[in-house]
Amino acid sequence: MKLGFLVLAAGAMLSAVTANAAPFTFAQFEQKSTADTIRVTNGTGSTGSFQTIGAPLVNFSFLLPGLQEAGLGMQDAIMNVSGNITTPANIMNIPGPKPIFQLIDSGTISFTRTTPAPKGPGNGTGTNLLTISFTNAMLTGTQNGTSGSLLASTPDSVMTFTSDFMSFDHAIALDFAIALTSISGGGLNRTSTLDSLRAFTADSTGSFSSDPAPISTVPEPAALGLIGLGLAAVGLRRRRKAA
Predict the structure, then answer these.
(1) 31 lies in a domain?
(2) Closest-CA residue to 77 (of 51, 56, 52)
(3) What is the C-alpha separation between 47 and 201, in angstroms, rounded?
(4) 16 contacts 149 by C-beta, under 8 angstroms
(5) I need a surface site. Which of 50, 85, 142, 230 has the fewest CB within 10 A?
(6) Per-residue pLDDT reduced to its tens digit, 120-132
(7) Could you tell me the pTM of the whole model?
């Protein structure tokens, strides 16, 4: 079991490299306040949870130019994170700073716009900026360190991305990276070899990528103009036929 976890941890490190090399980072977020936004709790032994503290407000921004032209840009959004921990944390016994790994078995991450925004012609009800469902994310850092990262990348992790403002139907690879800073509780560590990470709170920022880039479902102004001209042409042709 220990060997299997180390293999998985090594896979997570490789995924992190893959994530950094992703061809298009389409969105990012940063917290709006100085209060901690993420909490890890330790249950009995190897059980625990990874979640947001309350419903923190964050600055969420798409990096697709078309969406910015449609008036979205930086958004006030509510972040919600929920993840399950069922396995012990693992520490690599090597010289120097010792890497520590904690598997997050499954979870969800969502960013909900505080007010609706247009997601298409005549539709002003879009609130789901981004929702992620994932399995096998890895929380990594160094033992007693006060910073770390939650990483996931396909195919090591199974993920789905959904949004009111873009489509991921054609994406062949997805990944995300959430940086954790100002970790409390003495840093990343465990109480015993059979325990999951001990409890802590932290600040967070993050980014989300896909290969290839997602497709915007919000028409750019130029596209809306072409749609209008097309409808006008159809109407004119019908009137001529009727005459």
Answers:
(1) yes
(2) 56
(3) 17
(4) yes
(5) 230
(6) 655 677 899 999 9
(7) 0.81
